Amino acid sequence: MTRVDVAYDDCYKVINKHSKTFTKAFSLLPALKRRAVWAVYAFCREIDDIVDEGKFPEKELQAFEQSFKRFLTGEFDLNDSKWIALDDVFKRFSMDTDAFLDMIRGQRMDLTKHSYETMEELEHYSYHVASTVGLMLLPILAPQNHQELRAGGIALGLAMQLTNILRDVGEDLERNRIYLPADIMKKHGLTKEELMEGVVTPTFIKVWEDVAERAEELFTLSLKTIDLYPIDARMPVKASAYLYRAILTSVRSNNYDVFTERNYVSKEEKEVILMEMQG
User: HEC profile for 27-58?
Assistant: First the structure.
C-alpha cells in the first residue's frame, strides 16, 4: 500500500472504533468518497478527544487549530495519517475550510459553557459541533451541487447532535454538563437538582420528549432534499439519518433510562432498518 492508502486505513480504524453507525451508513459509498469520509471523521474525532480527554484541553485545542491552519498552507506532519489523508481529500474535493474552523470554535465552547438557556442557544452550539460535519462532507458526497444541500445538511447535523444530547444525559452530568435547555426544564417543572438525581420521572420524560420532538422535525427536514444527492450518496445519507433517529426509539424502548445505560441501535436492528429503507 502507498503512504496515502495506509493513512486512509488508519482513519478507517478510528471511525470503526468510535462510530459503528457512521461506519455502517457510509460503507455504502464508493471507495473514493468513503475514504474521504473516514479522513474527515478522524479530524473531528481528534478534536472531540482533546476536549473530552485532554490534560490541558485549551492549550491542546489551540495547538490543533494552529496545526490545521498550517495544513491549509501545505505544511503538515508527514508522519500523521490524519493530515496525510486529509491532504488527499482537499486535493480531490472543493472542501469548505470555514466548516473545519467552525467545528474547532464549537468544541472550544465546550471548554467554557456547560449549560444552555434556550433551544435556540443549544442549536447555535449544535451547528458548530455537528452541522459543520455535514458541511465538511457535502463537497465529498455531492461534488456538483453541494451548495444546494446546505440547509438539509445543517438540519441533519442539528438532529444528530440533539439525539446525542438526549442519549448522553447521564454521561454529560458526570462531566458537569447540562445540555437540556433551561427554559424547557422550567416549562415542565424539572429542576437542576432533580435532574442530577438521575431518576427517570414523568417530568423528565416530558422535557426529553420536548427536545426529541425538535430532533424529529429536523430529521424530517433534512430528508426533504435527499433526492438532490447523487445516487451513490443518497442511500448513505438517508441511512445515517434513519440509523441515528432510531437511537431515540431505543431510548423510549428502554423506558428513557439515559442515566445508567448507554442506549444504542443493535447490529440486528440496523440491518432491519437498512433493509426496510431499500425495500
Answer: CCCCHHHHHHHHHHHHHHHHHHHHHHHCCCHH
Task: Give phi and psi for 201, each to the nearest 5.
Answer: -125, 165
Please choose, from the candidates 142, 131, 113, 163, the residue with its C-alpha nearest in 3D space to the C-alpha of residue 226: 142
Q: At what angle do helices 150-167 and 119-126 cross, to 10 degrees?
A: 110
Q: What is the mean pLDDT of residues 47-66?
A: 94
Q: What is the CATH number of the domain that holds 22?
A: 1.10.600.10
- Tens-digit pLDDT profile for residues 199-229: 999 999 999 999 999 999 999 999 999 999 9
Q: Which candidate, 279, 276, 225, 278, places its Cα nearest to that of 249? A: 276
Mean of pLDDT values over 5-26: 89
Single-letter amino acid code for the residue at 249: T
Domain containing 85 equals 3-278
Q: Give CA separation, 143 vs 74, 103, 135, 224, in Å.
A: 22, 21, 12, 19
Question: How far, in Å, CA of 157 to CA of 165, rounded?
Answer: 12
Q: Are residues 258 and 170 in contact, defined by beta-carbon separation less than 8 angstroms?
A: yes
Number of independent structural domains in the chain: 1
As to burial, measured by CB atoms within 10 angstroms (0-12 exposed, 13-18 middle, 19+ buried), residue 161 is: buried
